Amino acid sequence: MATVLSVSGSPSATSRTGRLLRHLDQRLIAQGHEVVPLDVRTVPAEALLGADFRHPAIVEATELFARADGIVVGTPVYKASYSGVLKALLDLLPQYALTGKTVLPLATGGSVAHVLAIDYALRPVLNSMGAAHIVQGWFTLDRDITAHEDGSLTIAPDAAEALGQVVDQFSTALGRTPYLAAAS
């Protein structure tokens, strides 16, 4: 099937956002997709903050975006927008790094007051980067995600159902991207 780059824009190693993405990665793998995880927090800060386009980690991230058929972008919401570490990475990618890609935007946050961050903060940036198709995104409340010490994750039933639907829609849309149709 398709290659999916799953990008966690959380600066925290123990974030709900990152754990949620890795949980959803398993659903995509079960649907036959190859999933490549990218935790932006692992990209050296000096490369991100110094805008070092030639840093090996930035070159590698750029290549991951180029090779992917689809991109899942997950971010915690801070001050009604996506994370700064995610912005720093997106700023270093080529202007049209998402051309021909199907993109699924996801966000997590502590209040429903942040639910529009996907549509008003993240979606315009993804669109400006040339995404072929940005599927319906989803915002999940922090309280609906429980991370356990053993590394497992529990998602509240209503949130789990909604997330399953958007991931399935993304998976279906991957089969309809112009890139995949041309490659067949």
Q: How is the biggest beta sheet arranged?
A: 6 strands, parallel
- Please count the helical segments: 7
Q: Give the overall pLDDT as a whole number.
A: 93
Q: DSSP strand (E) fraction?
A: 15-25%
- Poorly predicted segments: 177-184
Percent helix range: 40-55%
CATH superfamily: Flavodoxin domain
Question: If you had to describe this structure to a student in words, what would you say it looks like?
Answer:
- This protein is of the alpha/beta class and about 180 residues long.
- It has 7 helices and 8 strands; from the N terminus they run βαβααβαβαββββαα.
- The chain has helices spanning about 15-30, 45-50, 55-65, 85-90, 115-130, 155-175, 180-184, and strands at about 5-10, 35-40, 70-75, 100-110, 135, 140, 145, 155.
- Strands 1, 2, 3, 4, 5 and 6 form a 6-stranded parallel β-sheet that branches. Strands 7-8 form a two-stranded antiparallel ribbon.
- It starts with a strand and ends with a helix.
- Mean pLDDT is about 95; it is low at about 175-184.
Summarize the structure.
The protein is built from 7 helices and 8 strands; from the N terminus they run E-H-E-H-H-E-H-E-H-E-E-E-E-H-H.
